[in-house]
Amino acid sequence: MPFNIPILLTWLRVALIPLVVGIFYLPDHVLAEPDRNLAATVIFIVAAVTDWFDGYLARRWNETSAFGAFLDPVADKLMVAGALLVLMQLGRVDAIISFIIIGREITISALREWMAEIGARKSVAVSSLGKIKTAAQMVAIPMLLFHDRLFSVIDMQLSGTILLWIAGVLTVWSMFYYLRRAWPLIKEKAGPM
What pLDDT does residue 92 have? Predict the structure, then answer.
């Protein structure tokens, strides 16, 4: 397993996931709700920034690796799933949107693994649509974690909810995009039905 700064940042992102979740289980006398929301928001944003930064550094320093290519999307999916589950428990996100996003991630991860096994991983490589979907999620989730008005004006819960539903639509759209690209190979490998 290679060890470099980009992989270290990815591992940092993995380590921050339990902090985002765990903050909401602290007793009120340790951290009250407004402070809890702010702390979780800041930690999630730091984790999201490492997602961009580790990829940038890996490409810039030519330190890309198969392990980094595997760990980076796993860290992203864990981060989003952990945050969505906490937000759902707090009543800030509907179960249906959480199911759509998490279900899509599992489906596409399985598809990518299968496509890699048959030597066709490039046909389901990350698209710009997938990147836009991820960006929408990474902006919506901190808004929902914050769960208050920003500068006493912007309703972050409402804004985050709207953006997360947009991310949900992009999630379904991108899933069908990947499945459509993989469909000829799926039909070929599955044989006659």
Answer: 95
Question: For residues 158 and 149, what is the distance between their CA atoms, to the nearest angstrom?
Answer: 10
Better pLDDT: 34 or 99: 99
pTM for this predicted structure: 0.85
Return the domain boundaries, the chain. Answer: 5-190
Question: Would you state the structure tokens that stand for residue 163, as one six-digit string?
Answer: 């953006």
CB 67 within 8 A of CB 2: yes
- CA 148 – CA 34 distance, rounded (Å): 8
Q: Domain 5-190 sits in which CATH superfamily?
A: CDP-alcohol phosphotransferase transmembrane (TM) domain (1.20.120.1760)
Per-residue pLDDT band for 120 (boundaries 50, 70, 90) equals low
The angle formed by the CA atoms of residues 44, 24 and 94, to the nearest 5 degrees, is: 75
Q: Is 144 exposed, middle or buried (0-12, 13-18, 19+ CB in 10 A)?
A: buried
Give 171-176 contacts, CB < 8 A, sequence gap 24+. 171/100, 171/101, 171/104, 171/133, 171/137, 172/100, 172/104, 173/129, 173/133, 174/104, 174/108, 174/127, 174/129, 174/130, 174/133, 175/104, 175/107, 175/108
**Which bin fits 191, alpha (ψ -120 to 50), beta or left (φ > 0)?**
left
List pLDDT tens digits, range 134-168. 889 999 999 999 988 878 788 889 999 999 999 99
CB atoms within 10 A of CB 188: 10
